[in-house]
Specification:
It is built from ten helices and 63 strands. The protein is mainly beta. Among the domains are: 218 residues, 3 Solenoid (Pectate Lyase C-like), CATH 2.160.20; 117 residues, Lipocalin.
Length: 708
C-alpha cells in the first residue's frame, strides 16, 4: 500500500476531529497518552474525567488528492478494498473498514520480506516464523467480501494467525482463519487478544492446528456469533481474567487435546451453541485467581456424546458452571437429553431416543393442549409424527404414538416437586400407543378434580418395555395404570392412590408385568387382570403395600403372584355364590379402549332398543353384570319420549333432549334426572371385540349403566 496515502488519510482524519476536541500532548515516540493496557472505558460507578481545553491549536495543511495506482488499495465510500496479504496488513489503522477480496492471504509469505515495523499499528515478531502483531487500534472492521471465500493463514505453529494487543472496538466477520501446516501440536492460537475490549467476531471459521480458536487475556467484552471453531489441538477457547464473553449460535466441533474450555478467572455465556465430536482431558476446567471466579452458563445448547458424559461428571465439582433450560444432551446410549420448563416444550420434544427432564412445578397439560388446538386445530396432528391431540367427551387428550427410547423425568429426582394434571375427566393424563422402551420417573400425575372419571392416569396400548419409577399417580382416574396388549412393564418405588375404580387395569398382558416396592391405596379395588390364551402374561408383586379395597380384591386373586407384601385387614371376602359364578363369565369393559363419540337424535333412535351389559357403582367402583332373565333395556322414540324398561311392564318413561353433540338429557316422569352418551370401541374394549362397535352409557343416580 502507498505509505503516502496512509499518511494523508490519517492527517485528514485528525483535521476532522480537531473542531470537536482539543489535542492531547503526544510523547516523543508518537505513542498516545497512557501506558499500554490502559483503557478509556469507565468502570462501574466511576465518572469520566473531562479533557481540559487546549491552549493552542496547530494548523493542519490541506493535502492534495492521492495519486494511487490501480494496483494499490483503493478507498471507496470509506472502505479499503484489498486483495493481497501486504495490502491487508498495511491497511490496518483506527476507524478503517477493510474488505478482503476472495482468495487466500498468506501472512507469513508477506512478513518474510517486510520490515519489523509494517506500519504504525502492525509489527512483526519471530517465533518459529514471523507473526503479525496489531497494537493500539480502535474502531476497525475487517471483513471478507460478501459471498466470497476469504481465508487468512499463517505458517508457523508457534505464532498466532493474528495477534491483537491494546485494541478496542474491533469487528472481524466472514473470514476463515487457520495455520497452513496440517493438524498437529501448536503453540499459537488462531486469534489472540491481550488487554483488548469490545471485540466482535461474526461468521468466522477458525480451524487448527491452532491451540485454541480464540485465546484472550485481560480482555473485556468479546462476542462470537455464528462462528465455527474446529480441529484445534488444545481446545475451543482460552480465557484468562476476561469478562463479558458471549458466544451465540457457535459450533465447536472435532477439537481434541486438553481443556476444551480453559477458563482462568473468567466467566462466559453460551447461547444456542453446538458442541460435538470433541474429545480431550476435560470439558469444564475452572481456575480461580485474584478473587475472580471461573464459570459459564449454557442456554439452548446442544452437546454430543463425549461432551454430555464429561459434563455429567464435571458439573458436580464445578458449581459455577450452570446448565440452563432447553439444553440438549446425547447420553452414552445415543439419547439426546432435553431440559424443559413447560408442557409445550415437553410435547414438542417427544421423539425417539430422547430423555426429557422437566423443571419443578405444577403443569396443567389440558391448558397447553387447548392453546395448541386452538392455534393449529387438525393441522397439529398433521405436523407432528409422534404426538397427537384427540377430542374426548369433555376436553382434549394427548397421545404419544410410535416412539421408542423415550423417557420423561423430573430433573432433580425428588417426586412431588413436579406434577402434571389434566382437567377432562374422560381423558387419560397421558396415553401411549405402539411405543417401546418407555420410561417415566419421579413425577406426580393425576386429574385436576375429583369425581366420576372415564379416563385413566397412564394408559398404554400395544407397548413394550415400560419402566415407571418413583411415580405418584392419583385419582379421579378410573385406574392409575391401564395397559392393553402390552409386553414387559416394571413399576417400582411408586404410589397409586385414590382412583375411581382401581389401581391397575392390565388387559391382554403379553409378558410379565411387575410391581416392586409400590404402594396401592385408597381405591375400591386393586385391579383387573386378563391374560389371553397362549400369551406369556403374568402379574408379579414384590414388597408392595395394599390398602383396604386393594387388599380385599387382590389377596384372593389367584392370577397374581405376591411375595413379601403388606396387606390391610380383610373386610370383604369373595362371593362364591352361584350368581357370582355367573358374573365371572363376563369381562368388564376396558374404559380406556372406549372413545367418546358424537351423535344426534337420529342416531339415538336408529336402534330399536339398547340392552344393558354392565353396571358400575359410581361411589365404590364395583362392577356387576346384567345376568337375570329379565334383561333391562332402553328405548328412544322419535317424538322425544323414551323408556327405561325394568322388571315391570310399565318401566320408567322419560322425555329426552339433546344438550350437545355428545350428551343427551333425560327427565323421568317420576322426577329423576339423568344423562346419556355414546362411546365407540377402539378395539379390545372386551376380549376379542372389534373396532367400531358402539356403547351407550346412562349416568343414572349413583350408577353408570352400559348398554350395547
Amino acid at each position: 500500500m502507498n505509505k503516502k496515502l496512509n499518511i494523508c488519510a490519517f492527517v485528514l482524519a485528525l483535521l476532522l476531529l480537531l473542531p470537536l476536541a482539543g489535542c492531547s500532548e503526544a510523547s516523543d515516540k508518537g505513542e498516545p497518552v497512557g501506558a499500554p493496557g490502559e483503557t478509556t472505558t469507565e468502570a462501574p460507578g466511576q465518572t469520566a474525567t473531562e479533557t481540559p481545553e487546549p491552549t493552542t491549536t496547530t494548523p493542519v495543511p490541506i493535502l492534495p488528492e492521492s495519486t494511487a495506482s490501480p494496483e494499490e488499495s483503493v478507498v471507496e465510500d470509506e472502505v479499503v478494498h484489498v486483495s493481497t496479504a501486504g495490502e491487508f496488513l498495511e491497511a490496518i489503522a483506527p476507524g478503517v473498514v477493510i474488505e478482503l477480496a476472495p482468495g487466500t492471504y498468506n501472512l507469513t509469505e508477506y512478513l518474510r520480506g517486510a520490515s519489523d515495523t509494517v506500519s504504525d499499528y502492525v509489527t512483526r515478531s519471530f517465533t518459529d516464523g514471523w507473526q503479525a502483531e496489531i497494537r493500539q487500534v480502535e474502531g476497525m472492521t475487517i471483513r471478507g467480501a460478501h459471498g466470497g471465500n476469504v481465508e487468512v493463514v499463517a505458517e508457523p505453529r508457534y505464532s498466532d494467525v493474528l495477534y491483537f494487543s491494546d485494541c478496542s472496538d474491533i469487528t472481524i466477520e466472514n473470514i476463515t482463519f487457520g495455520h497452513t501446516i496440517e493438524q498437529g501440536n501448536c503453540q499459537g492460537a488462531v486469534l489472540a487478544f491481550d488487554y483488548c475490549q469490545k471485540i466482535s467476531l461474526d461468521s468466522l471459521d477458525l480451524y487448527g492446528c491452532g491451540t485454541y480458536g480464540v485465546a484472550a487475556d485481560h480482555t473485556v467484552g468479546i462476542t462470537l456469533k455464528d462462528c465455527i471453531i474446529r480441529e484445534c489441538s488444545y481446545g475451543f477457547v482460552d480465557l484468562c481474567l476476561c469478562s463479558d464473553a458471549i458466544f451465540e449460535g457457535c459450533t465447536f466441533r472435532d477439537n481434541e487435546g486438553f481443556n476444551m474450555l480453559s477458563f482462568d478467572g473468567s466467566f462466559a455465556r453460551f447461547e444456542g451453541c453446538t458442541f460435538t465430536g470433541n474429545e480431550g482431558d476435560n470439558f469444564l476446567p475452572a481456575y480461580y485467581r485474584h478473587g475472580s471466579e471461573s464459570g459459564a452458563r449454557f442456554e439452548r445448547c446442544t452437546f454430543g456424546r463425549w461432551e454430555s458424559q464429561r459434563l455429567n461428571e464435571e458439573l458436580k465439582e464445578r458449581g459455577s458452571f450452570v446448565i440452563g433450560e432447553d439444553c440438549r444432551f446425547e447420553d452414552a446410549a445415543g439419547k439426546r437429553v432435553v431440559y424443559v420448563s413447560n408442557m409445550e416444550q415437553m410435547i414438542e420434544n417427544i421423539a425417539p431416543d430422547t430423555q426429557i427432564l422437566l423443571a419443578p412445578g405444577k403443569y396443567n397439560l389440558s391448558d397447553t393442549l387447548t392453546a395448541l388446538y386452538t392455534q393449529e386445530g387438525v393441522h397439529f396432528n398433521e405436523n407432528h409424527e409422534f404426538v397427537q391431540i384427540y377430542e374426548v367427551y369433555d376436553g382434549l387428550e394427548l397421545e404419544v404414538i410410535g416412539v421408542s427410547g423415550l423417557s420423561i423425568a423430573f430433573k432433580s429426582g425428588s417426586t412431588g416437586d413436579t406434577e402434571i394434571v389434566t382437567d377432562p375427566r374422560h381423558a387419560n393424563v397421558l396415553r401411549f400407543e405402539n411405543c417401546s422402551d418407555i420410561g417415566m420417573m419421579d413425577l406426580t400425575m393425576g386429574h385436576s378434580d375429583i369425581g366420576n372419571c372415564a379416563g385413566d392416569v397412564l394408559y398404554f396400548s400395544k407397548c413394550n418395555d415400560i419402566v415407571l419409577s418413583g411415580m405418584d399417580l392419583y385419582g379421579c382416574g378410573v385406574y392409575g395404570i391401564a395397559t392393553s396388549e402390552c409386553g414387559a412393564l416394571t413399576c417400582f418405588d411408586s404410589t397409586i392412590r385414590d382412583c375411581e375404580i382401581g389401581a391397575l387395569d392390565l388387559s391382554d398382558a403379553q409378558s410379565r408385568q411387575m410391581f416392586l416396592n409400590c404402594v396401592m391405596t385408597g381405591s375400591p379395588i386393586g385391579g383387573y387382570f386378563y391374560v389371553p390364551d397362549g400369551s406369556a402374561g403374568e402379574f408379579y408383586f414384590y414388597r408392595c403395600t395394599f390398602g383396604e379395597g386393594e387388599s380385599n380384591n387382590l389377596a384372593f386373586d389367584d392370577r397374581i403372584t405376591a411375595e413379601d407384601c403388606s396387606w390391610s385387614e380383610i373386610t370383604e371376602y369373595p362371593d362364591y355364590s352361584e350368581e357370582s359364578q355367573e358374573d365371572s363369565e363376563f369381562s368388564a369393559l376396558d374404559m380406556a379402549r372406549l372413545k367418546v363419540a358424537s351423535f344426534d337424535a337420529q342416531v339415538l333412535t336408529a336402534k330399536e332398543l339398547y340392552i344393558l351389559y354392565e353396571i358400575i357403582d359410581s361411589k365404590y367402583g364395583e362392577v356387576s353384570f346384567e345376568t337375570s332373565d329379565d334383561v333391562r333395556v332402553l328405548t328412544f322414540e322419535e317424538d322425544g319420549r323414551g323408556c327405561f324398561w325394568t322388571d315391570n311392564e310399565k318401566g320408567r318413561p322419560f322425555n329426552y333432549e339433546m344438550r350437545n353433540e355428545y350428551s343427551c338429557a333425560l327427565s323421568f316422569d317420576d322426577g329423576a334426572k339423568a344423562n346419556c352418551g355414546f362411546y365407540a370401541d377402539q378395539g379390545g374394549a372386551l376380549p376379542g371385540s372389534e373396532e367400531g362397535s358402539m356403547w351407550l352409557v346412562l349416568y343414572l343416580e349413583d350408577e353408570s349403566l352400559w348398554f350395547y
